[in-house]
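We treat protein structure as text, and this decision shapes the records that our systems exchange. Below, we set out a record of this kind in full and without editing:

***
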Amino acid sequence: MLYNVLIVEDDRQMAQSLAAQIGVLGHTVVIAYGPRMAIQQLNQVIPDVIFMDLNMPGLNGLEVLRFLRRDPTTATVPVVIVSASDDKETITAALEAGANDYIVKPPTIDAIEQALARVVTLPPELGGPVQQSAASTSGHARQ
């Protein structure tokens, strides 16, 4: 199954690298270069999966994540945190805030593929892929 993926990352080089890797896997990618741009993008289209950095100017990734989880339209969209921080406290804070998965920068294509597999194999009631009409190939996942 192919997904529409939103990348929320303020570092343009990292965002483009992540987009290229996800694109190689066949998914459609949109990049938001920061939290404000992400919120604007989410007002237009709800993605199937979000890959998001934690350390960004303005709102940080945890604040954006909490916002996403409170909003009914994005509450079940899976979020994979992609961060340079690999300490247990940060990972725990991200998961408690509602992240579905966490991978450390710079991610390998294998890590990205495995994270996608983990968040899209859940049943629909937990945010897994939702059956769509034949015209649509998107689904929502949450771990």
Observations:
- The chain has five helices and five strands.
- The two ends are 17 Å apart (CA to CA).
- Residues 129-143 have pLDDT under 50 and may be disordered.
